[in-house]
């Protein structure tokens, strides 16, 4: 049995009729950028996320960066984030010439440690906070929102890995001032290429984002605000996402079932599974910890089971910046040396999950 970390062929094959219909609809329309598919997807995705507004973009990275720009974050401003989430937030913070301020993470959840964020907001100058719902775990946004409101700073949610998650009655993305989503093909809701979106309950912010995604134009060739670019979700991707969106809850449920099967079946005392948390976890990634992840990875590869590492290099230790700082994040650094990602996608069968469990228990 050979098992990949993802299987987009299986995923796409199951929806082939619907996808073909969506693509043919776009081809016949003659409108391929910022047309009816994009506007319809924006309405449908905003409703799904229980938010007032959605602005569709070319990528999740653009969604983070343009959110920061729309929130007024720029030169020398300080943005709190984590260092264990693949550098995506740090890249966009630096893109607007701001400074990432890294907050330690909780060793169990791998999410930003709320107590450390609270202390930082009280003791330091912070101009914005980015919360990443890492691996598909929605953070305690009610508590974090309370902290940022008291500090008077904007809150941006990075929901790239958590579309559809729900905690305390709220969808991921509906609590912050803005929320960024990625539709990279392997995401829980993925396009057939790149794509992204921002949701917000703030009309003024959404209107500014619509300007920023198209050069800053308020009308053709008239630049009303600086910092804009060409970042538009094309009609083909919007149509594909519309075809997939009605299936997202079912796919998330299946991901949780797979995660629970792993958690209940893995009995190797050297391997620790992530906590299981109901709807607040949409199991984008199933990340285990162990003292010898490289050894486990080699063993699973010998049984034709693919794995990955999310993420091997903390942001503050990236080669481009590590020579210029003295930052120490012991929990973040320790976790990066102990993590391994197992296959977890909706088309994975129980038989395949049991095969992986058996291999881990035999290691």
Automatic annotation (TrEMBL):
Q: Which residues carry this modification: N6-(pyridoxal phosphate)lysine?
A: 187
Give the active-site positions: 187
What SUPFAM superfamilies has UniProt attached to this entry?
PLP-dependent transferases
Instruction: Output the superkingdom of the source species.
Output: Bacteria
Name the Pfam families for this protein: DegT_DnrJ_EryC1
What's one GO BP annotation on this UniProt entry?
polysaccharide biosynthetic process
Record key words, sorted = Aminotransferase, Pyridoxal phosphate, Transferase
The GO molecular function terms of this record are: pyridoxal phosphate binding; transaminase activity
Is Transcription found in the keyword set? no
> Is Transferase among the key words of this record?
yes
Q: Which family does it belong to?
A: Belongs to the DegT/DnrJ/EryC1 family.
Output the PANTHER family linked to this UniProt entry. Answer: 3-OXO-GLUCOSE-6-PHOSPHATE:GLUTAMATE AMINOTRANSFERASE (PTHR30244:SF36), TRANSAMINASE (PTHR30244)
Q: What is this protein called?
A: DegT/DnrJ/EryC1/StrS family aminotransferase
Task: Name the source organism.
Answer: Bradyrhizobium archetypum
């Amino acid at each position: 049995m050979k098992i990949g970390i993802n299987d987009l062929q299986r995923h796409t094959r199951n929806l082939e009729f619907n996808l073909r219909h969506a693509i043919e609809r776009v081809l016949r329309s003659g409108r391929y950028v910022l047309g009816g598919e994009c506007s319809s997807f924006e309405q449908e995705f905003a409703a799904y996320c229980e938010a007032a507004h959605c602005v569709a973009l070319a990528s999740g990275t653009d969604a983070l960066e343009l959110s920061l720009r729309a929130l007024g974050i720029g030169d020398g401003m300080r943005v709190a984030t984590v260092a264990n989430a693949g550098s995506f937030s740090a890249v966009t913070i630096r893109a607007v010439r701001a400074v990432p301020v890294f907050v330690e993470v909780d060793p169990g959840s791998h999410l930003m440690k709320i107590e450390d964020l609270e202390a930082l907001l009280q003791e330091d100058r912070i101009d914005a906070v980015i919360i990443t719902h890492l691996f598909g775990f929605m953070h305690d946004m009610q508590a974090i929102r309370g902290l940022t409101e008291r500090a008077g700073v904007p809150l941006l949610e990075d929901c790239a890995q958590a579309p559809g998650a729900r905690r305390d009655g709220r969808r991921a993305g509906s609590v912050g001032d803005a929320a960024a989503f990625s539709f990279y093909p392997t995401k829980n809701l993925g396009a057939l290429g790149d794509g992204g979106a921002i949701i917000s309950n703030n009309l003024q912010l959404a209107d500014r984002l619509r300007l920023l995604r198209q050069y800053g134009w308020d009308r053709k060739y008239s630049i009303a605000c600086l910092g804009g670019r060409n970042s538009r979700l094309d009609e083909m991707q919007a149509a594909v996402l519309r075809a997939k969106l009605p299936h997202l809850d079912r796919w998330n449920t299946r991901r949780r079932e797979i995660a629970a099967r792993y958690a209940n079946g893995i009995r190797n005392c050297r391997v620790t599974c992530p906590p299981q948390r109901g709807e607040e976890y949409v199991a984008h990634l199933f990340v285990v910890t162990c003292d010898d992840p490289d050894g486990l990875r080699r063993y699973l590869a010998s049984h034709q089971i693919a794995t990955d590492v999310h993420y091997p290099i903390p942001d503050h230790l990236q080669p481009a910046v590590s020579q210029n700082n003295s930052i120490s994040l012991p929990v973040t650094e320790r976790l990066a040396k102990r993590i391994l990602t197992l296959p977890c996608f909706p088309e994975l069968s129980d038989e395949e999950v049991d095969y992986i469990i058996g291999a881990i228990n035999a290691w």
